[in-house]
Design brief:
6 helices; 19% strand; 2 domains; single chain; Rossmann fold; nine-stranded mixed beta sheet; 33% helix; three-stranded antiparallel beta sheet; Hypothetical Protein Ta0175, Chain: A, domain 2
Length: 252
């Protein structure tokens, strides 16, 4: 990974970014973030949030923040201007939720310490439980169990996700860009993240300009794909570092 510089961002016209650990500091928004998002909107640099957070949470976030849209549940649902669009095909919803609950119960038999996340009641496409207190070995064992039962699995700094196979951030982002932002080439998009949950956004074959905020360094040995560039600052300060470069270029 190289340190982020102005030169690599000359072609960027749109930002697609993770939320927790990337737009937050200690899991909270900051006044600087709100001002930076406003400045990007004024400069006509759209921001798409691509998060694992629940549909219920993201629906509200998209409404209040000055962003172009938000993808929830790691590519499950897209919110934009009061519109919601499911990005994956699901069986009958009640049956789908029951199957997710069964997979979680299976994991809980082997790992009794895991607890359903507080936002799970507001989810549609996936099931989440808190990542705190789970070792890397246990995470890998959970992933193998989920795959054996026909489910995908990923984790972030906040949560573990049981999800349909083929549902991830990159697939969801590609779908949204193709449907709603067709004027933007993928080479004009910078993807940003901070954890293993974001590694599909770091795939150079899909998104050649990818950035990790500095706190991603804690996870580099757990990633199959690394971002091309790394900010010097961590969490939201790293995002603002990236945004400041783009805003300075736009003003020049």
């Amino acid at each position: 990974m190289q340190i982020l510089s102005a030169n690599v961002l000359r072609s960027v016209r749109l930002i697609a970014t993770d939320m927790d650990g990337t737009l937050t500091r200690h899991e909270k928004y900051t006044p600087k973030l709100l001002q930076t998002l406003t400045d990007l909107a004024v400069a006509n640099i759209p921001v798409l949030i691509v998060t694992g957070r629940s549909a219920g949470w993201v629906n509200a976030i998209e409404h209040y923040l000055p962003i172009a849209g938000a993808i929830a549940e790691n590519g499950g649902i897209f919110y934009r201007k009061g519109m919601a669009e499911r990005l994956i095909e699901l069986p009958e919803l009640q049956l789908h939720r029951q199957r997710l609950a069964q997979m979680f119960a299976t994991l809980q038999q082997q790992f009794p310490q895991i607890r359903t996340s507080e936002d799970n009641a507001f989810r549609i496409t996936d099931w989440t439980f808190d990542v705190q207190g789970i070792s890397l070995l246990e995470l890998r064992q959970m992933e193998c169990q989920c795959q054996a039962q026909g489910w995908g699995f990923t984790y972030s700094t906040v949560q573990c996700h049981i999800r349909p196979l083929g549902q991830d951030k990159a697939i969801g982002l590609k779908t949204v860009l193709s449907r709603f932002f067709a004027d933007y080439d993928f080479r004009e998009v910078v993807t940003v993240g901070d954890s293993p949950n974001d590694q599909s956004l770091f795939d150079p074959a899909l998104f050649p300009i990818s950035v990790g905020v500095a706190n991603l360094a804690h996870y580099t040995d757990q990633l199959q794909s690394l971002p091309a560039y790394l900010t010097q600052a961590a969490e939201v300060e790293g995002f603002c570092e990236l945004a400041n470069i783009l805003l300075t270029q736009r003003a020049a």
